[in-house]
């Protein structure tokens, strides 16, 4: 029986991957050997999809082929759009996304054994369709008809188009595209691990991605950007940042969007997101969100240093996501869905990697319950159901 318990699997190596490498001590993130600092300003999300799914950056012909497949895979089965029309308008966008992704499995092709295909084309179909689900729900819950996808736009451009019916400004499209690039993969984070666990049982890709979506939802993971946005709207102005941070920490609470299990320095994605937030705020800034975010990060560092000298808590990827997505006009409760629309590239890449060399993931636990004893008949049990 194992005696060593690593709560939260902190520092435990549970597998290997060729997709991405997180070097937490130096704050470096690479996708298949390419530094995110090179990819963020230069590569498009579609190139990253190719890199993660096929193992290399595409040549021009391969990129055109991938864009064609993404463009033609965006529309949703009509019954799923109808199902969304009947969902209570109060449903949280992540619940809708998770449910409809699961529903896509109902409409996917099966092989002679009745199993769904879980191949690279299923991956591309999921990548193509997720933004359509998010944009459709965005409109349906506002009482508007969904706008069908366009096949000639990028993943980012098409998402923004489907929300408003207008092709986005280049600054907006580029910002969302870079966001998707930055979020595309992050080694064995909680949601990716959940996807791999499900895939290791030979669950199909729709089920594995549904597991990932459920795991992303919580505010210790992908839900943190929504929580960070709430913080920024509560703080309201940069001048309020320090008293707000002091109050939160005095109550023993956490600053959402700060801190990371792996990074002991600043999350390398944060600087790109911060730069984007600054640029977008000059273009479309509302409510001084970028300035407020910057002030909250500064205040957090200052107050945490005072409380715990030598602390290493910095902004993570979710922190500057909040002003970026808010300045793109996206409602705060949809941020986790947007995270998923980027991370789906990594999730599906990891599922394919898991299936290519599969072993069931099945860890152990120590047992802390009562010692084994005989079954107690109902008439002999104590009033509270205890053994008597
Ligand atoms: N604000 C204030 N204090 C913090 C924060 C924070 N955001 N994060 C960690 N700490 C403190 C803890 O209180 C703890 O202090 P203690 O040692 O005095 O108890 C110490 O730092 C270590 O914290 P742990 O929770 O043990 O560290 P862990 O590695 O589990 O934390 C986590 C990682 C969960 C992300 C944490 O930093 C956190 O809760 N952050 C806020 C939520 C968040 O932003 N999540 C998104 C992460 S990125 C992503 O998933 C895409």
Question: What would a concise description of this structure say?
Answer:
Helices cover 54% and strands 3% of the residues. With 388 residues, it is an all-alpha fold. A hairpin with a 2-residue loop joins β2 and β3 (34-35).
Structural overview:
The protein has 388 residues and is mostly helical. Helix content is 54%, strand content 3%. It is built from 16 helices and three strands. It has helices at residues 36-42, 45-54, 60-72, 78-85, 93-104, 120-140, 155-164, 170-183, 190-200, 205-216, 224-235, 241-250, 268-284, 289-307, 317-327, 335-356; strands at residues 20-23, 28-31, 34-35. The longest helix has 22 residues, at 335-356. Acetyl coenzyme *A binds next to helix 15.
Which descriptors apply to this entry?
388 residues; three-stranded antiparallel beta sheet; mainly alpha; 16 helices; binds acetyl coenzyme *A
Task: Tell me the overall shape.
Answer: globular
CATH architecture of the domain at 224-326: Orthogonal Bundle
**What is the CATH topology classification name of the domain at 224-326?**
Cytochrome p450-Terp, domain 2
Helicity range: 40-55%
Bound molecules: acetyl coenzyme *A
Order the strands across the largest sheet as they lie in space.
1-2-3
Largest sheet: 3 strands, antiparallel
Distance between the termini: 29 Å
Mean residue pLDDT: 94
CATH homologous superfamily descriptor of the domain at 224-326: Cytochrome P450-Terp, domain 2
Quaternary class: single chain
Beta-strand content bin: under 5%
Helix and strand succession? EEEHHHHHHHHHHHHHHHH
């Amino acid at each position: 029986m194992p005696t060593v318990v690593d709560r939260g699997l902190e520092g435990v190596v549970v597998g290997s991957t060729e997709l991405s490498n997180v070097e937490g001590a130096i704050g470096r993130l690479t996708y298949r050997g390419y530094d995110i600092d090179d990819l963020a300003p230069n590569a498009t999300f579609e190139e990253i999809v190719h890199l993660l799914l096929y193992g290399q950056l595409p040549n021009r012909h391969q990129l055109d082929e991938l864009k064609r497949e993404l463009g033609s895979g965006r529309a949703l089965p009509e019954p799923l759009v109808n199902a969304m029309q009947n969902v209570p308008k109060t449903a949280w966008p992540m619940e809708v996304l998770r449910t409809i992704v699961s529903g896509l499995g109902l409409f996917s092709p099966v092989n002679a054994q009745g199993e769904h295909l879980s191949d690279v084309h299923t991956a591309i179909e999921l990548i193509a369709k997720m933004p359509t689900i998010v944009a459709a729900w965005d409109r349906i819950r506002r009482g508007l008809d969904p706008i069908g996808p366009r096949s000639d736009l990028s993943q980012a451009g098409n998402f923004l188009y489907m929300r408003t019916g207008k092709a986005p400004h280049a600054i907006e499209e580029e910002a969302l595209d870079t966001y998707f690039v930055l979020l595309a993969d992050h080694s064995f984070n909680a949601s990716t691990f959940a996807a791999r666990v499900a895939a290791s049982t030979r669950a199909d890709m729709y089920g594995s991605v549904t597991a990932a979506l459920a795991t992303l939802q919580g505010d210790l993971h992908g839900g943190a950007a929504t929580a960070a946005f709430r913080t920024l709207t509560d703080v309201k102005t940069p001048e309020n940042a320090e008293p707000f941070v002091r109050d939160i920490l005095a109550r023993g609470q956490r600053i959402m969007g700060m801190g990371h299990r792996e990074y002991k320095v600043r999350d390398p994605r944060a600087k790109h997101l911060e730069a984007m937030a600054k640029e977008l705020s000059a273009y479309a800034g509302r409510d001084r969100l970028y300035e407020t975010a910057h002030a909250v990060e500064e205040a957090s560092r200052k107050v945490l240093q005072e409380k715990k000298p030598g602390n290493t808590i910095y902004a993570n990827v979710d922190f500057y996501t909040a002003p970026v997505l808010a300045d793109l006009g996206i409602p705060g409760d949809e941020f986790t869905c947007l995270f998923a629309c980027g991370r789906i590239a990594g999730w599906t890449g990891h599922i394919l990697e898991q299936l290519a060399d599969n072993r069931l993931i099945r860890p152990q636990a120590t047992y802390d319950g009562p010692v084994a004893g005989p079954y107690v008949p109902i008439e002999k049990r104590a009033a509270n159901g205890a053994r008597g």
